[in-house]
Design a protein that fits this description.
Length: about 300
């Protein structure tokens, strides 16, 4: 069994078509068909069956495909690690982060890091809290910014790098828009625009409202800070957002007011797998980030 056979097999499984797979592999269709045939002969099973003009994995083909995906993924990572150890300033850093950090924080830290290491490449992946945890555990990413910081996780280690204040955001014509600070309970009669379920900011705001003595009435739910900010600016309701989500990206902006009671914050952590050594280039980036946030001597490990 050859590596090329596994690569051809996986590409055909992904495209469900020999011709399309051959085009992406930049080889002749006959070469792909021949390698698949040799692989099936060696295994003694049919990996594909015809479905119209396409090919579909057989049940045993599906099992084999999952294993092959893992093998090739591990192989790619091994090759990448070898290259990174030989020249860690030219490697690739795979980093995950929630959408709210993509507006300002991620561009800022990456820009600063690339001033020192201009040849390092980045692969970004956005996701919600459970998705980011899963991506770290499955090694889809090397590091992930996450909020809130997971206080206890057996398989994950990390550091709290930032605690960020959340602000009330109001339509510009709201009676409280001109105040320097307000109590959250003063918004109990307003309708709220919150993140959809699954986003980590939603329970933070929800629990803050409960602490203030009321259950928020939801007018709309959204999945992006720009959408929530825009709906508030348009007078559709009020919300509570972190400071980093309030950088202006369009001319229609809501008013921002500090919350005095309760004070609402979120922790932002940088996490990684406990049982897996980071590539050298990712280690360099992590060290840079701890220094960037002033935490090089103040690490907070996850238990």
């Amino acid at each position: 069994m050859e590596l090329r056979q596994l690569q051809y097999f996986l590409k055909v499984a992904q495209k469900e078509h020999v011709t399309q797979a051959a085009e992406e592999l930049h080889v002749a269709q006959s070469a792909v068909s021949r390698q698949i045939h040799h692989l099936e002969e060696e295994l003694g099973v049919d990996l594909f069956m015809h479905k119209g003009r396409n090919l579909q994995l057989t049940p045993v083909g599906q099992l084999f495909c999952k294993r092959v995906e893992g093998i090739l993924k591990d192989l790619d990572r091994a090759v990448g690690e070898v290259h990174e150890f030989s020249d860690p300033e030219k490697g690739e850093i795979r980093i995950g982060f929630p959408h709210s950090l993509g507006i300002h924080l991620i561009p800022s830290v990456v820009s600063e890091f690339r001033k020192r290491y201009p040849n390092v490449k980045f692969k970004f992946k956005q996701g919600m809290y459970p998705t980011l945890i899963r991506d770290v555990l499955s090694s889809e990413v090397d590091l992930a910014f996450i909020s809130p910081f997971p206080e206890k996780h057996e398989q994950i280690g990390g550091d709290v790098v930032l605690t960020e204040e959340l602000y009330a955001i109001l339509p510009q014509n709201h009676p409280l828009a001109g105040e320097e600070s307000i109590r959250l309970e003063q918004l109990k009669e307003d309708k709220f625009i919150l993140f959809s379920k699954g986003y980590s900011l939603r329970p933070i705001v929800w629990h803050a409202c409960l602490e203030a003595g009321f259950t928020p009435r939801i007018a709309f739910e959204g999945e992006e800070t720009d959408a929530i900010r825009g709906l508030v600016a348009a007078g559709m309701g009020v919300s509570v957002l972190p400071e980093m989500a309030l950088f202006q990206t369009n001319p229609l902006q809501p008013a921002r007011v500090r919350l005095s009671s309760p004070r609402v914050t979120r922790s932002i952590g940088l996490i990684h797998r406990n049982d897996e050594k980071l590539p050298l280039v990712a280690q360099s980036f992590r060290s840079f980030l701890l220094d960037y946030f002033g935490l090089e001597n103040n690490k907070t490990p996850v238990n």
